[in-house]
Write a structure and sequence with these properties.
heterodimer; A: about 475 residues; Amidase signature (AS) enzymes; eleven-stranded mixed sheet; 14 helices; B: about 70 residues; mainly alpha
Protein backbone atom coordinates (compact mmCIF):
# COMPACT_ATOMS: atom_id res chain seq x y z
CA UNK A 1 0.00 0.00 0.00
CA UNK A 2 1.39 3.41 -0.93
CA UNK A 3 2.03 6.05 1.69
CA UNK A 4 -0.71 8.70 1.78
CA UNK A 5 0.36 12.23 0.83
CA UNK A 6 1.50 14.69 3.51
CA UNK A 7 -1.36 16.38 5.32
CA UNK A 8 -2.27 19.74 3.78
CA UNK A 9 -1.65 22.86 5.84
CA UNK A 10 -4.39 23.98 8.20
CA UNK A 11 -5.28 26.79 5.82
CA UNK A 12 -5.42 24.44 2.81
CA UNK A 13 -7.42 21.82 4.69
CA UNK A 14 -9.85 24.45 5.91
CA UNK A 15 -10.36 25.69 2.37
CA UNK A 16 -10.76 22.14 1.04
CA UNK A 17 -13.39 21.31 3.65
CA UNK A 18 -15.24 24.55 2.87
CA UNK A 19 -15.33 23.85 -0.86
CA UNK A 20 -16.19 20.18 -0.33
CA UNK A 21 -13.08 18.70 -1.91
CA UNK A 22 -12.24 16.78 1.28
CA UNK A 23 -13.90 15.81 4.53
CA UNK A 24 -12.75 15.50 8.14
CA UNK A 25 -12.96 11.72 7.83
CA UNK A 26 -10.84 11.70 4.67
CA UNK A 27 -8.23 13.93 6.31
CA UNK A 28 -8.20 11.77 9.43
CA UNK A 29 -7.85 8.56 7.44
CA UNK A 30 -5.06 10.16 5.43
CA UNK A 31 -3.25 11.11 8.64
CA UNK A 32 -3.72 7.71 10.24
CA UNK A 33 -2.50 5.99 7.06
CA UNK A 34 0.56 8.20 6.94
CA UNK A 35 1.29 7.60 10.62
CA UNK A 36 1.00 3.84 10.05
CA UNK A 37 3.40 4.06 7.12
CA UNK A 38 6.07 6.41 8.47
CA UNK A 39 5.88 6.51 12.24
CA UNK A 40 7.48 3.11 12.81
CA UNK A 41 10.71 4.82 11.67
CA UNK A 42 10.04 8.29 13.09
CA UNK A 43 8.67 7.37 16.55
CA UNK A 44 6.89 10.71 16.71
CA UNK A 45 3.79 9.28 18.40
CA UNK A 46 3.56 7.65 21.81
CA UNK A 47 -0.20 7.15 21.61
CA UNK A 48 -2.36 7.16 18.47
CA UNK A 49 -6.02 7.77 19.27
CA UNK A 50 -7.32 6.38 15.97
CA UNK A 51 -10.82 5.35 16.99
CA UNK A 52 -11.36 8.56 18.92
CA UNK A 53 -10.13 10.57 15.92
CA UNK A 54 -12.43 8.83 13.44
CA UNK A 55 -15.41 9.30 15.78
CA UNK A 56 -14.55 13.01 16.20
CA UNK A 57 -14.22 13.41 12.43
CA UNK A 58 -17.65 11.88 11.89
CA UNK A 59 -19.12 14.15 14.55
CA UNK A 60 -17.57 17.15 12.80
CA UNK A 61 -19.05 16.04 9.50
CA UNK A 62 -22.48 15.61 11.02
CA UNK A 63 -22.31 19.09 12.53
CA UNK A 64 -21.26 20.61 9.22
CA UNK A 65 -23.97 18.70 7.38
CA UNK A 66 -26.43 20.28 9.80
CA UNK A 67 -25.09 23.70 8.86
CA UNK A 68 -22.89 24.29 11.88
CA UNK A 69 -19.25 24.87 11.01
CA UNK A 70 -17.54 25.92 14.23
CA UNK A 71 -14.69 27.77 12.51
CA UNK A 72 -11.77 27.33 10.15
CA UNK A 73 -10.16 24.50 12.14
CA UNK A 74 -13.32 22.38 12.44
CA UNK A 75 -12.66 18.80 11.41
CA UNK A 76 -8.88 19.16 10.95
CA UNK A 77 -6.49 16.74 12.71
CA UNK A 78 -3.92 17.86 15.31
CA UNK A 79 -1.67 16.24 17.88
CA UNK A 80 -0.34 17.06 21.36
CA UNK A 81 3.03 16.72 23.00
CA UNK A 82 2.49 14.04 25.62
CA UNK A 83 2.56 16.49 28.50
CA UNK A 84 -0.86 17.95 27.61
CA UNK A 85 -3.81 16.40 29.41
CA UNK A 86 -6.71 14.90 27.52
CA UNK A 87 -9.48 13.39 29.63
CA UNK A 88 -9.30 9.62 29.41
CA UNK A 89 -6.04 9.49 27.42
CA UNK A 90 -2.73 8.73 29.22
CA UNK A 91 -0.32 11.60 29.85
CA UNK A 92 3.14 10.07 30.26
CA UNK A 93 5.60 12.95 29.76
CA UNK A 94 7.57 10.14 28.03
CA UNK A 95 8.47 8.81 31.48
CA UNK A 96 8.05 5.61 33.45
CA UNK A 97 7.32 7.88 36.42
CA UNK A 98 3.88 8.66 34.97
CA UNK A 99 2.93 5.21 33.67
CA UNK A 100 -0.76 4.70 34.40
CA UNK A 101 -1.49 8.43 34.68
CA UNK A 102 -4.86 9.03 33.06
CA UNK A 103 -6.18 12.57 33.51
CA UNK A 104 -9.84 13.23 34.06
CA UNK A 105 -9.86 16.73 32.56
CA UNK A 106 -8.57 18.37 29.41
CA UNK A 107 -5.80 20.93 29.56
CA UNK A 108 -7.18 24.39 28.82
CA UNK A 109 -5.39 24.36 25.45
CA UNK A 110 -6.79 20.93 24.62
CA UNK A 111 -10.26 22.16 25.52
CA UNK A 112 -9.86 25.17 23.23
CA UNK A 113 -8.71 23.07 20.28
CA UNK A 114 -11.51 20.56 20.86
CA UNK A 115 -14.06 23.36 21.11
CA UNK A 116 -12.81 24.60 17.76
CA UNK A 117 -13.74 21.17 16.41
CA UNK A 118 -10.23 19.85 15.81
CA UNK A 119 -9.63 16.11 15.66
CA UNK A 120 -7.02 14.67 18.05
CA UNK A 121 -4.73 12.11 16.40
CA UNK A 122 -2.73 11.29 19.50
CA UNK A 123 0.09 12.17 21.88
CA UNK A 124 3.63 12.88 20.77
CA UNK A 125 7.08 11.96 21.99
CA UNK A 126 9.04 14.44 24.11
CA UNK A 127 12.28 14.45 25.97
CA UNK A 128 11.41 12.97 29.34
CA UNK A 129 9.51 15.59 31.35
CA UNK A 130 10.68 18.09 28.70
CA UNK A 131 14.13 17.97 30.30
CA UNK A 132 16.05 14.83 29.25
CA UNK A 133 17.74 14.06 25.98
CA UNK A 134 17.29 12.00 22.82
CA UNK A 135 19.60 9.14 23.77
CA UNK A 136 18.10 8.28 27.15
CA UNK A 137 16.87 4.70 27.37
CA UNK A 138 13.17 5.18 28.08
CA UNK A 139 9.93 3.23 27.89
CA UNK A 140 9.32 4.59 24.36
CA UNK A 141 11.90 5.40 21.68
CA UNK A 142 12.86 9.00 20.97
CA UNK A 143 11.42 10.81 17.95
CA UNK A 144 13.60 11.04 14.85
CA UNK A 145 14.36 13.91 12.52
CA UNK A 146 12.70 13.13 9.17
CA UNK A 147 15.43 15.01 7.29
CA UNK A 148 17.99 12.49 8.55
CA UNK A 149 17.18 9.86 11.14
CA UNK A 150 20.74 9.96 12.51
CA UNK A 151 20.47 13.65 13.38
CA UNK A 152 18.84 15.35 16.33
CA UNK A 153 15.16 16.29 15.95
CA UNK A 154 15.55 19.01 18.56
CA UNK A 155 13.81 19.02 21.86
CA UNK A 156 12.06 18.74 23.98
CA UNK A 157 9.00 18.82 21.68
CA UNK A 158 10.77 16.33 19.41
CA UNK A 159 7.68 14.36 18.40
CA UNK A 160 5.84 17.56 17.54
CA UNK A 161 8.67 18.73 15.27
CA UNK A 162 9.06 15.34 13.63
CA UNK A 163 5.33 14.80 13.04
CA UNK A 164 4.71 18.23 11.50
CA UNK A 165 7.84 18.14 9.33
CA UNK A 166 6.94 14.67 8.06
CA UNK A 167 3.41 15.76 7.21
CA UNK A 168 1.77 13.37 9.67
CA UNK A 169 -0.19 16.32 10.99
CA UNK A 170 -0.38 20.02 10.12
CA UNK A 171 -0.27 21.34 13.69
CA UNK A 172 1.10 19.97 16.92
CA UNK A 173 1.35 21.57 20.31
CA UNK A 174 4.70 21.87 22.03
CA UNK A 175 6.00 23.48 25.18
CA UNK A 176 8.97 25.79 25.57
CA UNK A 177 10.93 26.35 28.79
CA UNK A 178 14.30 27.15 27.21
CA UNK A 179 13.57 26.61 23.51
CA UNK A 180 11.59 23.38 23.33
CA UNK A 181 9.07 24.57 20.74
CA UNK A 182 11.60 26.52 18.71
CA UNK A 183 14.50 24.06 18.58
CA UNK A 184 12.49 21.18 17.08
CA UNK A 185 11.13 23.72 14.60
CA UNK A 186 14.71 24.79 13.83
CA UNK A 187 16.12 21.31 13.31
CA UNK A 188 13.05 19.93 11.52
CA UNK A 189 12.68 22.92 9.18
CA UNK A 190 9.25 24.16 10.26
CA UNK A 191 7.73 27.10 12.15
CA UNK A 192 7.44 27.18 15.94
CA UNK A 193 6.00 29.98 18.03
CA UNK A 194 6.68 30.55 21.71
CA UNK A 195 4.01 33.10 22.61
CA UNK A 196 4.45 35.74 25.31
CA UNK A 197 4.49 34.33 28.82
CA UNK A 198 0.87 34.40 29.95
CA UNK A 199 -0.63 34.52 26.43
CA UNK A 200 -1.57 30.82 26.17
CA UNK A 201 -2.66 28.78 29.18
CA UNK A 202 -0.34 26.20 30.78
CA UNK A 203 -3.07 24.65 32.92
CA UNK A 204 -3.24 20.90 32.48
CA UNK A 205 0.25 20.70 30.99
CA UNK A 206 2.92 18.85 33.00
CA UNK A 207 5.16 21.63 34.36
CA UNK A 208 8.92 21.84 34.18
CA UNK A 209 9.45 25.37 35.49
CA UNK A 210 6.43 27.43 36.53
CA UNK A 211 8.00 30.76 35.67
CA UNK A 212 9.53 29.76 32.34
CA UNK A 213 7.06 27.30 30.77
CA UNK A 214 5.23 28.44 27.65
CA UNK A 215 2.80 26.53 25.45
CA UNK A 216 2.40 27.05 21.72
CA UNK A 217 2.06 25.57 18.23
CA UNK A 218 4.42 24.02 15.69
CA UNK A 219 3.24 24.20 12.08
CA UNK A 220 4.64 24.26 8.56
CA UNK A 221 3.54 27.83 7.83
CA UNK A 222 3.14 31.15 9.59
CA UNK A 223 -0.50 31.27 8.54
CA UNK A 224 -1.13 27.95 10.30
CA UNK A 225 0.52 29.35 13.43
CA UNK A 226 -1.80 32.35 13.19
CA UNK A 227 -4.86 30.15 12.74
CA UNK A 228 -3.84 28.16 15.81
CA UNK A 229 -3.23 31.26 17.89
CA UNK A 230 -6.72 32.55 17.08
CA UNK A 231 -7.98 29.59 19.11
CA UNK A 232 -5.23 29.18 21.70
CA UNK A 233 -4.70 32.72 22.94
CA UNK A 234 -6.76 34.03 25.80
CA UNK A 235 -6.86 34.62 29.52
CA UNK A 236 -7.29 31.56 31.72
CA UNK A 237 -8.21 32.71 35.23
CA UNK A 238 -7.28 29.29 36.60
CA UNK A 239 -3.67 29.56 35.36
CA UNK A 240 -1.84 31.87 37.77
CA UNK A 241 0.63 32.84 35.03
CA UNK A 242 -2.07 33.74 32.52
CA UNK A 243 -2.25 37.42 31.65
CA UNK A 244 -5.64 39.18 31.61
CA UNK A 245 -5.19 40.69 28.17
CA UNK A 246 -7.43 40.51 25.10
CA UNK A 247 -6.61 37.43 23.01
CA UNK A 248 -5.28 39.35 20.00
CA UNK A 249 -5.91 39.04 16.26
CA UNK A 250 -3.25 37.11 14.37
CA UNK A 251 -4.90 36.86 10.94
CA UNK A 252 -6.16 40.26 9.93
CA UNK A 253 -2.73 41.85 9.36
CA UNK A 254 -0.86 38.66 8.53
CA UNK A 255 -0.47 39.39 4.83
CA UNK A 256 0.08 43.13 5.09
CA UNK A 257 3.81 42.87 4.46
CA UNK A 258 6.60 44.33 6.54
CA UNK A 259 7.19 47.66 4.83
CA UNK A 260 7.90 50.26 7.48
CA UNK A 261 8.86 47.82 10.23
CA UNK A 262 12.22 48.14 11.96
CA UNK A 263 14.06 44.90 12.64
CA UNK A 264 16.90 44.88 15.16
CA UNK A 265 19.68 42.56 14.07
CA UNK A 266 21.48 41.11 17.09
CA UNK A 267 24.80 40.77 15.32
CA UNK A 268 26.91 40.71 18.49
CA UNK A 269 24.66 38.05 20.04
CA UNK A 270 25.26 35.89 16.99
CA UNK A 271 29.00 36.54 17.02
CA UNK A 272 29.18 35.34 20.60
CA UNK A 273 27.39 32.14 19.73
CA UNK A 274 30.01 30.48 17.52
CA UNK A 275 27.65 30.13 14.57
CA UNK A 276 28.60 28.01 11.57
CA UNK A 277 29.51 29.96 8.43
CA UNK A 278 26.33 28.81 6.70
CA UNK A 279 24.23 29.86 9.67
CA UNK A 280 25.80 33.33 9.55
CA UNK A 281 25.10 33.40 5.80
CA UNK A 282 21.44 32.49 6.44
CA UNK A 283 21.09 35.40 8.88
CA UNK A 284 22.75 37.81 6.45
CA UNK A 285 20.54 36.61 3.61
CA UNK A 286 17.49 37.20 5.79
CA UNK A 287 18.66 40.76 6.45
CA UNK A 288 18.82 41.34 2.69
CA UNK A 289 15.35 39.88 2.15
CA UNK A 290 13.87 41.94 4.99
CA UNK A 291 15.34 45.11 3.47
CA UNK A 292 14.08 44.15 0.02
CA UNK A 293 10.61 43.75 1.49
CA UNK A 294 10.73 47.30 2.84
CA UNK A 295 11.84 46.83 6.42
CA UNK A 296 14.59 48.86 8.03
CA UNK A 297 17.27 46.72 9.64
CA UNK A 298 19.43 48.19 12.40
CA UNK A 299 22.01 46.63 14.70
CA UNK A 300 20.93 46.12 18.30
CA UNK A 301 22.68 44.75 21.38
CA UNK A 302 20.94 42.29 23.68
CA UNK A 303 21.61 42.10 27.44
CA UNK A 304 24.76 40.12 28.31
CA UNK A 305 24.27 36.37 27.77
CA UNK A 306 26.23 35.53 30.94
CA UNK A 307 23.70 37.33 33.14
CA UNK A 308 20.72 35.91 31.25
CA UNK A 309 22.05 32.36 31.55
CA UNK A 310 22.73 32.72 35.29
CA UNK A 311 19.20 33.95 35.98
CA UNK A 312 17.54 31.53 33.57
CA UNK A 313 19.19 28.33 34.74
CA UNK A 314 18.96 29.18 38.41
CA UNK A 315 15.20 29.55 38.09
CA UNK A 316 14.78 26.50 35.86
CA UNK A 317 16.92 24.22 38.02
CA UNK A 318 15.30 25.30 41.28
CA UNK A 319 11.73 25.02 40.04
CA UNK A 320 12.18 21.72 38.19
CA UNK A 321 13.91 20.18 41.20
CA UNK A 322 11.09 21.34 43.46
CA UNK A 323 8.62 19.59 41.17
CA UNK A 324 10.59 16.34 40.95
CA UNK A 325 12.42 16.09 44.28
CA UNK A 326 10.06 13.54 45.80
CA UNK A 327 10.40 11.14 42.87
CA UNK A 328 14.14 11.80 42.61
CA UNK A 329 14.50 10.67 46.22
CA UNK A 330 12.10 7.74 46.21
CA UNK A 331 12.25 6.30 42.68
CA UNK A 332 15.27 7.77 40.87
CA UNK A 333 15.65 4.58 38.83
CA UNK A 334 12.43 5.40 36.96
CA UNK A 335 14.06 8.38 35.23
CA UNK A 336 16.42 8.20 32.31
CA UNK A 337 20.00 9.06 33.23
CA UNK A 338 20.10 12.41 31.42
CA UNK A 339 16.78 13.55 32.87
CA UNK A 340 17.73 12.52 36.39
CA UNK A 341 21.09 14.25 36.26
CA UNK A 342 19.76 17.45 34.76
CA UNK A 343 16.89 17.66 37.22
CA UNK A 344 19.30 17.04 40.07
CA UNK A 345 21.22 20.22 39.29
CA UNK A 346 18.48 21.98 41.25
CA UNK A 347 19.98 20.59 44.44
CA UNK A 348 22.80 23.12 44.04
CA UNK A 349 20.59 26.23 44.03
CA UNK A 350 20.50 28.23 47.24
CA UNK A 351 17.58 30.38 48.36
CA UNK A 352 19.45 33.67 47.97
CA UNK A 353 20.57 32.72 44.47
CA UNK A 354 16.99 31.97 43.43
CA UNK A 355 15.85 35.36 44.71
CA UNK A 356 18.78 37.11 43.06
CA UNK A 357 17.95 35.36 39.80
CA UNK A 358 14.39 36.64 39.97
CA UNK A 359 15.63 40.15 40.72
CA UNK A 360 18.12 40.00 37.87
CA UNK A 361 15.28 38.84 35.65
CA UNK A 362 13.41 42.04 36.44
CA UNK A 363 16.39 44.10 35.27
CA UNK A 364 17.06 41.99 32.18
CA UNK A 365 13.41 42.15 31.12
CA UNK A 366 13.57 45.93 31.39
CA UNK A 367 16.78 45.94 29.33
CA UNK A 368 15.12 43.78 26.67
CA UNK A 369 12.10 46.10 26.66
CA UNK A 370 14.48 48.99 26.02
CA UNK A 371 15.75 47.21 22.90
CA UNK A 372 12.16 47.16 21.65
CA UNK A 373 12.02 50.94 22.01
CA UNK A 374 14.24 50.99 18.92
CA UNK A 375 12.73 48.18 16.83
CA UNK A 376 9.59 46.15 16.22
CA UNK A 377 11.34 42.78 16.31
CA UNK A 378 14.77 41.28 16.93
CA UNK A 379 16.47 38.89 14.50
CA UNK A 380 18.97 36.48 16.04
CA UNK A 381 20.17 32.93 15.50
CA UNK A 382 18.31 30.15 17.31
CA UNK A 383 21.12 27.58 17.02
CA UNK A 384 24.72 27.47 15.93
CA UNK A 385 23.97 25.45 12.80
CA UNK A 386 21.97 22.53 11.43
CA UNK A 387 20.84 19.59 13.58
CA UNK A 388 23.85 17.81 15.07
CA UNK A 389 24.31 14.08 14.64
CA UNK A 390 22.72 12.14 17.48
CA UNK A 391 26.17 10.81 18.33
CA UNK A 392 27.33 14.42 18.89
CA UNK A 393 24.42 15.63 21.02
CA UNK A 394 25.60 16.97 24.37
CA UNK A 395 24.03 14.67 26.96
CA UNK A 396 26.01 15.83 29.94
CA UNK A 397 24.09 17.30 32.87
CA UNK A 398 25.89 20.57 32.25
CA UNK A 399 25.62 21.64 28.62
CA UNK A 400 28.69 23.17 27.03
CA UNK A 401 26.56 25.61 25.07
CA UNK A 402 23.26 26.85 26.42
CA UNK A 403 20.38 27.27 23.94
CA UNK A 404 20.26 30.61 22.10
CA UNK A 405 16.49 30.50 22.46
CA UNK A 406 16.49 30.71 26.26
CA UNK A 407 16.81 34.49 26.78
CA UNK A 408 13.21 35.00 25.65
CA UNK A 409 11.97 32.41 28.14
CA UNK A 410 13.61 34.45 30.85
CA UNK A 411 12.15 37.76 29.72
CA UNK A 412 8.86 36.25 28.50
CA UNK A 413 8.88 38.01 25.13
CA UNK A 414 7.35 36.09 22.21
CA UNK A 415 9.74 34.43 19.76
CA UNK A 416 9.25 32.51 16.56
CA UNK A 417 11.61 30.30 14.56
CA UNK A 418 11.11 30.01 10.82
CA UNK A 419 12.86 28.13 8.01
CA UNK A 420 16.01 29.95 6.88
CA UNK A 421 17.48 27.75 4.16
CA UNK A 422 19.53 24.59 4.16
CA UNK A 423 23.05 23.61 5.07
CA UNK A 424 25.44 21.78 2.79
CA UNK A 425 24.39 18.54 4.51
CA UNK A 426 20.80 19.07 3.34
CA UNK A 427 19.50 19.82 6.82
CA UNK A 428 17.42 22.92 7.61
CA UNK A 429 18.75 26.24 8.87
CA UNK A 430 16.53 28.62 10.78
CA UNK A 431 15.95 32.20 11.86
CA UNK A 432 14.65 33.46 15.20
CA UNK A 433 12.58 36.61 15.63
CA UNK A 434 11.56 37.98 19.02
CA UNK A 435 8.92 40.63 19.54
CA UNK A 436 7.38 42.99 22.03
CA UNK A 437 5.30 41.40 24.75
CA UNK A 438 1.91 40.31 23.42
CA UNK A 439 2.84 41.30 19.87
CA UNK A 440 2.92 37.84 18.31
CA UNK A 441 0.96 39.28 15.39
CA UNK A 442 3.98 41.25 14.16
CA UNK A 443 6.21 38.18 14.42
CA UNK A 444 3.74 36.17 12.36
CA UNK A 445 3.59 38.97 9.81
CA UNK A 446 7.38 38.90 9.44
CA UNK A 447 7.39 35.10 9.26
CA UNK A 448 4.72 35.10 6.57
CA UNK A 449 6.53 37.75 4.53
CA UNK A 450 9.79 35.80 4.61
CA UNK A 451 8.04 32.54 3.82
CA UNK A 452 6.39 34.13 0.78
CA UNK A 453 9.60 35.78 -0.43
CA UNK A 454 11.74 32.63 -0.21
CA UNK A 455 11.25 28.94 -0.92
CA UNK A 456 12.79 27.75 2.35
CA UNK A 457 9.51 26.42 3.74
CA UNK A 458 8.47 24.64 0.57
CA UNK A 459 10.98 21.81 0.59
CA UNK A 460 9.86 18.53 2.19
CA UNK A 461 11.95 15.90 3.98
CA UNK A 462 12.38 12.42 2.46
CA UNK A 463 9.74 9.75 3.00
CA UNK A 464 12.03 6.76 3.03
CA UNK A 465 15.27 6.30 4.87
CA UNK A 466 18.24 3.95 4.71
CA UNK B 1 42.90 28.02 51.86
CA UNK B 2 41.54 24.53 51.42
CA UNK B 3 39.11 23.79 48.57
CA UNK B 4 35.76 22.91 50.07
CA UNK B 5 33.97 22.48 46.76
CA UNK B 6 33.73 18.70 46.93
CA UNK B 7 32.64 18.76 50.57
CA UNK B 8 29.99 21.36 49.72
CA UNK B 9 28.84 19.22 46.80
CA UNK B 10 28.46 16.18 49.03
CA UNK B 11 26.61 18.23 51.64
CA UNK B 12 24.16 19.61 49.08
CA UNK B 13 23.39 16.14 47.77
CA UNK B 14 22.91 14.89 51.32
CA UNK B 15 20.57 17.76 52.18
CA UNK B 16 18.64 17.20 48.96
CA UNK B 17 18.41 13.49 49.71
CA UNK B 18 19.76 12.34 46.36
CA UNK B 19 22.81 10.36 45.28
CA UNK B 20 24.61 9.10 42.20
CA UNK B 21 26.46 5.97 41.26
CA UNK B 22 30.21 6.04 41.60
CA UNK B 23 30.80 6.30 37.86
CA UNK B 24 28.58 9.41 37.58
CA UNK B 25 30.00 11.13 40.64
CA UNK B 26 32.83 12.94 38.80
CA UNK B 27 30.44 14.09 36.06
CA UNK B 28 28.07 15.59 38.59
CA UNK B 29 30.93 17.15 40.55
CA UNK B 30 32.14 18.73 37.34
CA UNK B 31 28.60 20.00 36.70
CA UNK B 32 28.62 21.51 40.19
CA UNK B 33 31.87 23.34 39.46
CA UNK B 34 30.38 24.71 36.22
CA UNK B 35 27.33 25.78 38.18
CA UNK B 36 29.39 27.71 40.72
CA UNK B 37 31.10 29.55 37.89
CA UNK B 38 27.78 30.44 36.23
CA UNK B 39 26.16 31.85 39.35
CA UNK B 40 29.07 34.07 40.38
CA UNK B 41 27.15 36.89 38.72
CA UNK B 42 24.30 36.37 41.19
CA UNK B 43 26.61 37.35 44.04
CA UNK B 44 27.04 40.81 42.56
CA UNK B 45 24.91 43.39 44.41
CA UNK B 46 21.71 44.70 42.83
CA UNK B 47 19.97 48.01 43.57
CA UNK B 48 17.80 47.68 46.66
CA UNK B 49 14.69 48.71 44.76
CA UNK B 50 14.88 45.77 42.36
CA UNK B 51 12.19 43.29 43.32
CA UNK B 52 11.93 39.68 42.17
CA UNK B 53 9.92 39.14 39.01
CA UNK B 54 6.44 37.77 39.71
CA UNK B 55 3.99 36.01 37.43
CA UNK B 56 2.50 37.17 35.16
CA UNK B 57 5.74 39.04 34.93
CA UNK B 58 4.91 41.33 32.06
CA UNK B 59 2.20 43.06 34.02
CA UNK B 60 3.25 46.51 32.86
CA UNK B 61 2.29 45.54 29.33
CA UNK B 62 -1.27 45.05 30.40
CA UNK B 63 -1.45 48.81 30.44
CA UNK B 64 -0.80 48.91 26.70
CA UNK B 65 -3.92 46.95 25.84
CA UNK B 66 -7.20 47.71 27.59
CA UNK B 67 -8.78 44.84 29.43
CA UNK B 68 -11.61 43.12 27.66
Amino acid sequence: MSTPAPLPSLAEASHMIAEGSTTPTALTEQALGRIAALDPRLNAFITVTGDRALAAAKTAEAEMAAGHRRGPLHGIPYALKDIYDVAGVPTTAHSRVLLGNIPTQDAETTARLEAAGMVLLGKLATHEFARGGPTDKLHWPSAKNPWNLDHFAGGSSSGSGSAVAAGLVAMAMGSDTGGSIRLPAVFCGITGLKPTYGRVSRRGVVPLSFGLDHTGPLTRTAEDCALSMQVLAGHDPLDPGSAPVPPGDYLSGLKDGIKGLTIGYARAFNEGAALSAESVAAQEEAVCVLRALGATVIDVALPPMRRMEAAMWTILHAESFAIHQDHLRRTPELYGRVTRERLSLGAFVTGPHYVQAQRLRTLLTEEMNAVFDRCDAILCAPASGTAPALSAVDELPWRKQQPLTAPFNLTGHPAICVPGGFGANGLPLSLQFAGRAFDEATLLRIAHALETATDHAARRPPESWP
Amino acid sequence: MSDTTEADFQALLRIAGISFTEDRYPVMLDAYRSWLKLVEVLDEPLPLAVEPAAAPRLAEFRLEEPRA
